[in-house]
Amino acid sequence: MSQYLLSTYFVDGEVEGAPMTPEDMQAFMGKVIALEAEMDASDTFVFGGALHDPDAATVVHSSDGDPVTTDGPFVESKEHIGGFYIINADDLDEALAWARKTAEATNHPIEVRPFRATGRVEDWRGEA
Amino acid sequence: MTPTVAARRGATDVERVFREVYGQAVATLVRVFGDITLAEDAVQDAFVVASERWRSDGIPPNPAGWIVTTARNRAIDDRRRSARGRELHEQLGAAARTWHDPVAEEWGEDAAVKDDQLRLIFTCCHPALRTEHQVALTLRLLGGLSVDEVARSFLVSEPAMAKRLVRAKYKIKAANIPYRVPAEADLPERLRAVLSVLYLIYNTGLDDPQRSVLRSEATRLARALVELMPDEPEAAGLLGLMLLSEARVPARTAKSPLVLLRDQDRTKWNRTMIEEGHAIVRACLRRNRPGPFQLQAAIQAVHCDADSFEATDWAQIVALYDQLFSVMPTPVVALNRAIAIGEIEGPEAALAALDAVAPDLDTYHLLHAARGTTLRRLGRRDEAKAAFERAAGLAATEVDRQFLTQQIEEY
User: Fold this and answer.
1) Least packed by Cβ within 10 Å: which of A57, A118, B271, B321?
2) Is residue B81 part of a domain?
3) In this structure, what DSSP letter does residue B125 have?
4) Looking at residue A96, which CATH number applies to its domain?
5) pLDDT tens digits for A24-69?
6) Quick one: CA dihedral B249, B251, B254, B255, positive or negative?
7) Are the beta carbons of B368 and B387 closer than 8 angstroms?
8) Residues of B in contact with A116 (CB under 8 A)
9) Is A92 in contact with B176 (Cβ distance < 8 A)?
């Protein structure tokens, strides 16, 4: 069993594929709810969520115990993660199948990234 | 025979056997260990042992089985020796216990060995890997080419190719790309990717005699794939396409590095390969499940059937290109169809058809070469020269560039 991050990227100023009308929104929500129900039923869903815009981000640096707080995202970029799922899957083929379903439901490209390790660092010992 | 000659012949025999069994041995050990790097290292270790022992004792009757057993045992011994690997050793021991005796059981069963190779080729050509990595992995793991040979074939340095292979293997492991023949629903798309990689490997070897190893390796792998998947007509189509192309290589490179089909000495064509290619195309026709590779093979079969360029059944070729275009509507297919049209309806019709596809293929040297040839037939010499100049400027290989420059110099 492996775990994967399925993340969706939004591009600043682009609303392509985003639901425009209340009806569209309802259809979109319906598809995502059905997808998540399917993920739950197969014990695939670990965690997921939608993020606020990068305008809401704050970065904290610690240099020599001196914390510095700055406004904005760590990387200034037109593209940013809009939301993500963390899923359980047997292998990449299974993860890609979920990514395909997620891309269909959300109408956004999905990046699939395998976790090197998950859970608490305490539990990784002896694995490295 | 002097002892030195005998030893040298022994050495080349051993090298030949290594090349033949490398892919089989790695494929089986990947299944046993679940790890490509471990499988490769174990096979390399076994080759070191074999190169000493076989030279004195001779090559054993089942060299692949010998390599797999030796490789597996050495990998287990290695892990046993290192304290860190105790856990892994237990894992390998468990794998080995469920595996029984490979020589006696599995290597007696051809099917199991072939299944291992089939699984591995689908891993190597997984769509999550970029094409250049798919090609490199296929040649290294299944073709048994050395890293240096793969590097030279793709005109990159050995360290660069080694890095490419490491990155590809890292992704397979990190992302957990499975060693598995894809499910029925995904099979057509996944098989197409495998066939495309093999055809790319073949074509890379076609234009450069220095890289002919790629042609023989691609053909060998295509043949193995046909044996593994006898019910997939596209795999057969690819093998037929390669054989019918390969059959003409002696004539293609006879007097100069590139002799066009029109000018080839057809007595130099390899009849045995053509017969096998024709038999494959006939079997595909009977099955009546056409696809892009089968149709391309059928087109080549018509060419190989003609005693001379003039005797070619161009109507049949155009009909096949029409069918090919309906399943694979690419500008390159349209370009080839336009050239065939010229042989039936004359150069003016060909030029009109070529100009129709020109916008999509403006940077493709063969479009401009075809326009040059057609304009020359129409007596439009200045335009023909300009087209050949454009083609020579765009040519991807030295052989093509020289050929096209020659066309310009004829003016």
Assistant:
1) B271
2) yes
3) T
4) 3.30.70.1060
5) 889 989 999 999 999 999 999 999 999 998 989 999 998 888 888 9
6) negative
7) yes
8) 174
9) yes
Q: What is the DSSP string of B245-278?
A: HHTTHHHHTSSSS---GGG--GGGS-HHHHHHHH
Question: Tens digit of pLDDT for each residue in B72-120?
Answer: 988 887 777 765 555 665 666 555 544 444 443 444 445 667 788 889 9
Domain that holds residue B60: 1-108
Say whether A92 and B126 touch across the interface (CB within 8 A). Answer: yes
* Sheet strand arrangement including A45-50: A45-50, A79-89, A2-11, A110-114
What is the tally of structural domains in chain B? 2
Distance between B369 CA and the closest CA of chain A, angstroms:
40
Distance CA B395, CA B391 (A): 6
Q: Amino acid identity, residue B1?
A: M
Contact status, residue B288 vs residue B309, Cβ threshold 8 Å: no
DSSP B144: -
Task: In whole angstroms, give the CA distance from residue B270 to residue B205.
Answer: 18
Angle (CA) A35-A39-A43 rounded to 5° is: 170
**Is the CB of A93 less than 8 angstroms away from the CB of B174?**
no
Asked if A3 has any chain B CB less than 8 Å from its own CB, the reply is no
Domain-located, residue A127? no
Probe site for chain A from B176, B180, B187, B190 (most A CB atoms < 10 A):
B176
